[in-house]
Amino acid sequence: MSSYRIPATALRHEVVIERSRFIADLAHAPDPAAAKAFVQRIREEFPDATHHCFAFVAGRPNDSQCMGSSDDGEPGGTAGKPMLTVLAHSGVGEIVAVVTRYYGGIKLGTGGLARAYGGTVAQGLNALALAEKVDYARLQGACDYGFLATVEHSLAECEGRIAHADYSHEVVLRLEVPETRLAEFLGLVRNRSQDRVQFRKEED
């Protein structure tokens, strides 16, 4: 997966079910540490709430190593899991959801709780503004000044960008090119320079 959707903004969505308030907060979380920090901020904002249940996919969609959830005192599997199920099936990455509950005095049962928590997140997700995140390949190489325009034009065609340039006896470049356009870019440069300009991919 070379691109995926992420939250463009934070969002708060509230519903009342059987006198209990369910307040869903959704936000961007590029990694688990950011997700946990956001959960803590919500806890501090609503210190008197009954529960602060959460779930996150703090990385690429479907990356199980970046997922987490908590029932925060609700019966096991009735809050964090249904919330995570909604996020995991949304195709959205780098996202955290916290549902703050103020208990209203009426028990919902395990099925009712799961529907309340999962449904509140689903409703919030439907209203959440999203952006597209593109994965870029990082390249490095050098070229004579005579081929710089060739590189720049090929880069523009493939929606890439120059991350850094060092102009000395030749131009030393670090480039960023969308993963989906990488092969196309390398082919354009190779053909247009007759194999005299080559870039190699930097390894993470």
Low-pLDDT runs of 5+ residues are: none
CATH class of the largest domain: Alpha Beta
Determine the mean pLDDT: 94
Order of helical and strand elements: EEEHEEHEHEEHEEHE
Derived from helix and strand composition plus strand pairing, the structural class reads alpha+beta
CATH fold name of the largest domain, please?
Ribosomal Protein S5, domain 2
% residues in beta strands? 25-35%
Number of helices: 5
Helix content: 25-40%
Number of domains: 2
The CATH architecture name of the largest domain reads: 2-Layer Sandwich
**Main β-sheet, spatial strand arrangement:** 2-3-6-4-5
Tell me the number of strands.
11
Could you state the CATH homologous superfamily of the largest domain?
A: Impact, N-terminal domain
The largest β sheet comes out as: 5 strands, antiparallel
Q: Please give the alpha-carbon distance between the first and last residues.
A: 17 Å
Radius of gyration: 23 Å
Shape: elongated
How are the secondary structure elements laid out?
Layout: E1 3-7, E2 11-17, E3 20-28, H1 32-45, E4 51-57, E5 67-70, H2 80-88, E6 95-102, H3 109-127, E7 130-134, E8 136-143, H4 148-157, E9 161-167, E10 171-178, H5 182-192, E11 199-201
Antiparallel strand pairs: 1-7, 2-3, 3-6, 4-5, 4-6, 8-10, 8-11, 9-10
Helix pairs in contact: 2-3, 4-5
